[in-house]
Write a structure and sequence with these properties.
This protein is an alpha+beta fold. The chain has 12 helices and 7 strands. The strands form 2 sheets. The chain has a 5-stranded mixed sheet, covered by helices on one side. A two-stranded antiparallel sheet has the order 1-3. Strand 4 and strand 5 form a beta hairpin. Helix 5 runs antiparallel to helix 6 and helix 10 runs antiparallel to helix 12. The longest helix has 54 residues.
């Protein structure tokens, strides 16, 4: 501790030594008698030693206290000792700022971790359904209706592919900005890729597609916008037992793509929460196929692309999704 103290005060000790040396040199050059300076020198030495003892005591107390609060980093800013000067006050302010930033980031990371755990748990639960079905179908392949079984296997594998694709995009969401390639793309070229992806589902469920294609070019990222189109179509097909899915540009709004289905719709009380991560709603729980992640991801992706999404629905009368493609500044 003494070594630490002298190391901390070495500049002050050096300066005091210089002062003593200057006075001693001056007295020596002027032939001043030592008897004249002995008495004031002893008095100064006594006060100096008293000051050093007092200063060392406070240094020791403060050092020990700081070591103790190192074990309680979350409470450090509240229990810092009183500053002894402007520099210490500046350092303490810096500590408070750093701690506040650390706590904000910690909370954000914890929320992301909780969300990721919830989603991974939900995903693992959802993936079991098609995999279990595949196992049962495989056992029955030796029976009749082999063609129907093959179709069922293809459908289940398609479900697995969708879940895997969604989970990968979910994991990439935080680094999405660095992955963007913004160019001008014809909207319906991207839409047709999404429709082709779900062609088997349209056919197997007997749902008709009504697409009014027209040339509209937007600045976006093709891969991420295609992902959103797939999520919206997936929801439309999932909650539409019979009828149609219509895709067209809004007749009065500029660069607004509309995807409308004739499905079961969304309950009015559920509409305000449809973008919440993990929220499935009443109809989602009835269907037992909803992960509650599709619209959440779609909104997050579109915001990063500078686009928007609006959903309107009436229970029992289908759902209309408007994708506003006019770009604002990206979030």
């Amino acid at each position: 501790m003494i070594r630490l103290y002298f190391k901390e005060k070495k500049n002050r000790i050096f300066l005091d030594g210089v002062f003593v040396g200057v006075f001693a040199l001056c007295f020596a050059l002027t032939d001043v008698s030592l008897s004249r300076i002995w008495y004031p020198a002893v008095i100064c030495l006594v006060f100096f030693l008293l000051f050093v003892a007092w200063d060392f005591y406070h240094f020791h107390i403060k050092h020990r206290f700081l070591l103790q609060i190192c074990n309680h980093i979350d409470e450090t800013a509240e229990y810092l000792p009183d500053a002894c000067g402007q520099l210490e006050e500046d350092y303490q302010q810096l500590v408070r700022i750093v701690l506040e930033t650390y706590q904000k980031r910690l909370i954000t990371n914890q929320q992301k971790l909780v969300g990721s755990k919830e989603y991974i748990t939900l995903w693992a639960h959802q993936i079991k359904t098609p995999l279990t079905a595949l196992g049962l179908i495989t056992q029955e392949l030796g029976e009749t209706n082999a063609l129907e079984k093959k179709k069922e296997i293809a459908n289940r594998l398609f479900e697995v592919e969708q879940y895997v694709d969604t989970s990968l995009q979910y994991m990439r969401l935080d680094t999405m900005i660095s992955d963007l390639v913004l160019q001008e793309y014809p909207v319906f070229n991207i839409v047709k890729q999404a429709v082709k992806y779900f062609a088997r589902t349209f056919i197997s469920k007997g749902i008709s597609l009504r697409m009014q294609e027209e040339y509209v070019a937007v600045v976006t990222d093709e891969k991420w916008l295609l992902f959103v189109m797939k999520q919206i179509l997936s929801n439309a097909l999932k909650y539409t037992k019979a009828g149609s899915v219509s895709i067209y540009m809004h007749p009065t709004k500029n660069q607004v793509l509309v995807i409308e289905d004739t499905g079961i719709g969304i309950a009015a009380e559920d509409l305000p929460r449809i973008y919440d991560r993990g929220f499935t709603g009443c109809n989602g729980r009835i269907q037992e196929k909803s992960t509650g992640i599709g619209l959440y991801l779609s909104k997050q992706v579109l915001e990063r692309l500078g686009h928007e999404i609006l959903v309107s629905s009436e229970e029992g009368n289908g759902t209309k999704v408007e994708v506003i493609l006019e770009r604002d500044d990206m979030g």
